[in-house]
Amino acid sequence: MKKVHSSLNNVLDLEKWQRLQDSLAVAAKMAIITIDYKGIPITDHSSCCDFCSQVRQDPKFLPYCLKCDSRAGLEAVRTNKPYIYFCHFDIIDVAIPIIIDDKYLGAVMAGQVKLPPNEITEGLERMSYISDSKQASNKLSLLRNEYEAIPTLSYEQVKSVSEMLFQLCNYIIEAALEKQLAIDMYSSVTQDDRISSRSEKIVGYGVENIKKIKKEMSDTLIDAYILGTFDKKITIFSPLLRPAIEYIFMHKSEKISLKTVSEICHISPSYFSRMFYKETGEYFSKYLVKLKVMFAKDLLEKTEMPINQISESLGFDEVSYFIKKFKIQTGVTPLVYKKNLPK
After folding, report:
1. Tens digits of residue pLDDT in 139-154
2. Which of 96, 109, 265, 293 is at 20 to 30 A from 238, Cα to Cα?
3. Are 210 and 179 in contact (CB under 8 A)?
4. Same domain, 163 and 38
5. Which residues form a coiled coil (predicted)?
6. What distance in Å separates the CA atoms of residue 293 and residue 327, rounded to the nearest whole number?
7. Distance (Å, rounded) from C-alpha 124 to C-alpha 95?
8. CB neighbours of 45 closer than 8 A, spacing ≥ 6?
9. Is 15 in the same domain as 158?
């Protein structure tokens, strides 16, 4: 797999993400902030309560807040699900991991809520303890009104909101990655420097997904370049065989057998072969290679696609086999053909 960048702020439109986060915080009745995989905030705090805002501005207590964020984020990654916990002031917070294709990209930190009195909290961990209990008591006394104003949610509500944020945030970010990945795949096909400059922003993705998107982008571009040539060629065929040629065009990257095209034309393989030879003077297998070499010539003339990618896009298993067939048809290798094109 290619080396990729894994920073959320290189994938997301942070201005739009901030607006979404602000709305989610209001709807969820929780404060929310997004951090990257290093634990560094990439957004402002949405709906941060007055108590936590003032605590985080105090250099004596900020390290405890950061310790909570860091430890909870690691626990969320370890379990691959939202991690609910108590902070050093007995406030409920949640670390919601952003994990795409088994890669940790960051987390959405939510919470700043209290549980109702006598709510069962068995199993919830307290992430940090303030070493100077007198100092903590003094802070609570000073900010008593702000502490009492912190929203209250039941444990079940916290769990439901956490799961909703987990699913929603991962879905949105995965969609953003896929969009960026499509740009990267397009760049690899076109070799366009203006687009390639953005490829460093792509986050790692599954091999199968990359292959799928790459194939779709490649097929789309190839269709655009060889459409004119194909339109001219297809008109020479009778209505009986034309569906087979159309199929070849629509499935350029596949291996196409005589059995497949004869079934498409609703005739037997032997009858297809006779009719095909009668119309073209060539056997189907030889004509198929000849047609794909013609496609390859168009791509060499009109694009900067590398030879191995052209070979793969036209359904050849091995580049060496493609080069061999190309040389038989044209007398030169694809590389020599490309070099001899008029500037």
Report:
1. 999 999 999 999 999 9
2. 293
3. no
4. yes
5. none
6. 9
7. 13
8. 31, 32, 33, 53
9. yes
